[in-house]
């Protein structure tokens, strides 16, 4: 399951965040809002009778608009203020989407279901089980998986090309010293905004994968903890490294699956008394580990598995 | 460095593991000698003040057979003694209500209730239209404002530490909400949890001040002081504090469980009226104690040597160090005092709402809003900002549905950052 659709979606979200955080040094803590915009943009369009391609376009367009709304006022702020504003804006968006009733455009807290048929109609895999050994996917699972990893591959290449270009050099210069970049005549604000919008659009595609995989969207999927998990993945893989988000996502999901399986087994076999840990605590252990991992990585190995120490944003304002 | 913290967390988990066993303990303390019963008080809420209704008939049934009945007395009170633990249906006879008085919801004349051994459960039948509808606009706004002051006072109390820690170290602590939750949980363990010592809530809250201060001390000594020595940057510290918050929050979840629970004491209180203001008595106490503590913090900051030193460090760290102030000690004092106040704020929030593992995270953005609105880095900014945010949040429910009130508060935060990032009381040159 470490290479399942979830891992692919998180890897793709990581590719977007890596451009913003790893390369540009933007402390965007509202990344989950871009995923929400993508997922809801698609779901609402299809649910209101639009075709799938239009839904995908609307999803990406929603993320672009969101990036502009986030970025235009906030990118002049210091890193810590940017973090607070983006996390607050993501929460505002989630509350507003969850607000109206069941019959509204967004479906309120119940969200939207049955919008993914168009996506699965394109499924090239015939019905059946696909897998090696204990790991197996249905035909639908295979299709989501393939589409997701294809997107990851495409955008890893896109980001690699972008960051090797002259634009990419400006982006890194901004991360290292914003004032120096500005004094060389670079339009720092515009480049930061471009980075935020492009990274956010990739995040929107990740949100769509999550939506197709579950065949439903609900506000409850888009909690701030998702952003924190994507940060863990980016830092785990190595900020500002091309393959970092992919490696980070696979390692992350491997560790999560392994510890969840191990804890369940241990509780089931009675190695851990029920009074200390029950089966309902397994999810909490996952997020406690994410938090601990994020903390320890940032302290002891901020360059992750693949990153270079000198590429890591250690002391940006 | 994280090892010390881990050890500390583990010790905390062990000391609180009684919480896990206490999950079912959400009504009144079991009293083995008391018979099981259901009781309540029927009042006509359409009158102001509400009027007790006598002579209303209620029956309790188990598996379709009546096991007891009661008629309300002059005070509107009733009680049905039950044969034992079990699931009962309690029905109110609508025909026995006085003429002109009806249930608020015709269909809700019976309540199914599960009674455990030795428990008495209070049931509420809503009779008469809600009083708030008959309140005048001015009265409603006034009541919302006072509720806002209550919320604001708690936010201010909880966020003084957040603001001062930023002032003396530059750390934007995303784990501050978990210090608030910590206080609420410690008080829950001390007063309510079945595995705890079961001391009354008021001394438990005083103890929470001490334990909360110790928690701040442990965080500073085991983690943040070491990170400062390594000269970790601003961004790294923010990510570390987010990770710390996520970790602590889920440790609380494992220990406390997902279900929010109230303290045993002061849970249900009659509203107490002062003029047009009608609030539970505990809310007045919360407002008074919070404001008194905030004034005390202000006096200590102005009048004592440590307070003056603290303001000096917040103003210019290097200059204070050069003038012979022990900066590391001042930072430690800030952590301890700030965490103690945050913990008490958690207890107050748990009293008005309920105790839950993520209550502090829910308050975190409100606290950020408060300190940024008031001017981050100063104690007075947090106080003014807290009160303002509390009032805005509550009063906004006059115009928008209450489910959007947090969105309103966060929007105020965003606007504050954009329009006046130095805050109402801050100086412009603070912000780069």
Which key phrases capture this entry?
heterodimer; A: 317 residues; mainly alpha; two-stranded antiparallel sheet; B: 432 residues; alpha+beta; ABC transporter involved in vitamin B12 uptake, BtuC; 2 domains; 4-stranded antiparallel sheet; 3-stranded mixed sheet; 14 helices; elongated
- Could you list the spans of chain A in which at least 5 consecutive residues all have pLDDT below 50? none
Described by strand count, sense and barrel closure, the largest sheet of chain A is: 2 strands, antiparallel
The CATH topology of the largest domain in chain B is given as ABC transporter involved in vitamin B12 uptake, BtuC
How much β-strand is present in the residues of chain A? under 5%
Please trace the helix and strand order of chain A, writing H or E for each element.
HHHHEHEEHHHHEHHH
Determine the structural class of chain A based on helices, strands and strand pairing: mainly alpha
The helix content of chain A is 55-70%
Q: What Rg of chain B is obtained from the alpha carbons, in whole angstroms? A: 25 Å
The whole-angstrom Rg of chain A is 20 Å
Entry summary:
Chain A has 317 residues and is mainly alpha-helical. Chain A contains twelve helices and four strands. Chain B has 432 residues and is of the alpha+beta class.
List the helices and strands and how they pair.
The complex is a heterodimer of chains A (317) and B (432).
Chain A: H1 5-23, H2 31-47, H3 52-74, H4 79-98, E1 112-113, H5 117-121, E2 129-132, E3 135-138, H6 139-164, H7 166-176, H8 178-183, H9 188-214, E4 216-217, H10 224-237, H11 244-268, H12 282-300
Antiparallel strand pairs in A: 1-4, 2-3
Chain B: H1 2-16, H2 18-21, E1 37-41, E2 43-44, E3 51-52, E4 57-62, E5 65-71, E6 77-81, E7 86-92, E8 110-115, E9 120-122, H3 131-134, H4 137-169, H5 176-191, H6 201-229, H7 234-256, E10 271-274, E11 277-280, H8 281-303, H9 305-315, H10 317-322, H11 327-352, H12 359-374, H13 379-395, H14 405-419
Parallel strand pairs in B: 1-9
Antiparallel strand pairs in B: 1-6, 2-3, 4-5, 4-7, 7-8, 10-11
């Amino acid at each position: 399951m470490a290479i399942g659709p979830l891992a692919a979606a998180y890897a793709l979200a990581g590719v977007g965040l890596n451009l913003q955080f790893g390369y540009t040094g933007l402390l965007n803590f509202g990344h989950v809002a871009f995923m929400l915009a993508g997922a809801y943009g698609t779901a609402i369009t299809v649910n209101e009778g639009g075709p799938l391609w239009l839904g995908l376009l609307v999803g990406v367009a929603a993320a672009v608009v969101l990036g502009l709304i986030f970025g235009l006022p906030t990118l002049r702020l210091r890193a810590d203020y940017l973090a607070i504003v983006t996390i607050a804006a993501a929460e505002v968006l989630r509350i507003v989407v969850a607000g109206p009733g069941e019959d509204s455009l967004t479906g309120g807290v119940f969200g939207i279901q049955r919008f993914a048929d168009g996506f699965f109609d394109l499924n090239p895999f015939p019905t059946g089980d696909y897998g090696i050994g204990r790991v197996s996917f249905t035909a639908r699972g295979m299709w989501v998986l393939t589409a997701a990893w294809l997107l990851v591959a495409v955008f890893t290449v896109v980001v690699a090309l972008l960051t090797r270009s002259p634009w990419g050099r400006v982006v890194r210069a901004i991360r290292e010293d914003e004032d120096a970049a500005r004094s060389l005549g670079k339009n720092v604000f515009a480049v930061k905004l471009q980075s935020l919008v492009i990274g956010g659009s990739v995040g929107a595609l990740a949100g769509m994968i999550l939506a197709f995989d579950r065949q439903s969207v609900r506000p409850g999927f888009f909690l701030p903890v998702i952003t924190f998990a994507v940060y863990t993945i980016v830092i785990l893989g190595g900020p500002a490294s091309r393959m970092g988000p992919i490696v980070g996502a696979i390692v992350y999901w491997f560790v999560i699956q392994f510890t969840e399986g191990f804890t369940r087994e241990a509780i089931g076999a009675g190695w851990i008394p029920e009074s200390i840990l029950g089966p309902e605590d397994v999810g909490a252990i996952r997020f406690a580990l994410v938090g601990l991992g994020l903390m320890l990585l940032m302290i002891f190995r901020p360059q992750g598995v693949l990153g270079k120490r000198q590429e890591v944003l250690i002391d940006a304002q | 460095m994280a090892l010390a913290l881990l050890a500390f967390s583990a010790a905390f988990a062990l000391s609180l593991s009684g919480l896990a066993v206490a999950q079912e303990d959400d009504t009144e303390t079991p009293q083995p000698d008391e018979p099981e019963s259901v009781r309540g008080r029927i009042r006509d809420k359409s009158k102001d003040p509400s009027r007790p209704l006598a002579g209303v008939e209620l029956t309790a049934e188990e598996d379709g057979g009546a096991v007891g009945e009661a008629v309300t007395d002059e005070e509107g009170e009733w009680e049905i003694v039950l044969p034992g633990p079990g699931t009962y249906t309690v029905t109110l006879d609508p025909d026995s209500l006085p003429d002109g008085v009806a249930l608020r919801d015709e269909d809700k004349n019976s309540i199914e209730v599960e009674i455990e051994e030795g428990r008495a459960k209070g049931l509420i039948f809503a009779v008469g239209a809600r009083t708030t509808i008959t309140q005048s606009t001015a009265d409603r706004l006034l009541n919302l404002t006072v509720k806002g002051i209550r919320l604001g006072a708690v936010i201010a109390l909880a966020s003084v530490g957040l603001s001062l820690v930023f002032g003396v170290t530059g750390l934007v602590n995303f784990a501050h909400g978990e210090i608030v939750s910590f206080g609420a949980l410690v008080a829950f363990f001390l007063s309510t949890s079945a595995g705890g010592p079961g001391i009354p809530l008021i001394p438990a809250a005083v103890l929470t001040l001490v334990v909360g201060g110790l928690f701040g001390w442990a965080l500073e000594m085991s983690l943040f002081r070491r990170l400062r020595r390594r000269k970790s940057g601003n961004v790294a510290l923010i990510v570390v504090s987010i990770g710390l918050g996520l970790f602590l929050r889920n440790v609380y979840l494992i220990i406390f469980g997902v279900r929010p629970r109230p303290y045993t004491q002061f849970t249900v209180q009659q509203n107490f009226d002062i003029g047009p203001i009608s609030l539970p008595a505990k809310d007045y106490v919360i407002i008074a104690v919070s404001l008194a503590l905030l004034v005390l913090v202000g006096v200590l900051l102005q009048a004592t040597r440590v307070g003056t030193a603290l303001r000096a460090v917040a103003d210019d760290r290097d200059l204070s160090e050069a003038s012979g102030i022990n900066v590391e000690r001042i930072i430690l004092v800030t952590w301890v005092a700030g965490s103690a106040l945050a913990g008490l704020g958690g207890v107050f929030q748990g009293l008005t709402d309920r105790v839950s593992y993520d209550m502090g995270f829910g308050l975190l953005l409100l606290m950020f809003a408060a300190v940024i609105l008031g001017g981050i880095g100063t104690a007075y900014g947090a106080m003014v900002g807290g009160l303002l945010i509390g009032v805005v949040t509550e009063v906004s429910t006059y115009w928008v549905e209450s489910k959007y009130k947090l969105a309103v508060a966060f929007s105020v935060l965003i606007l504050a950052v954009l329009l006046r990032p130095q805050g109402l009381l801050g100086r412009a040159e603070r912000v780069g």
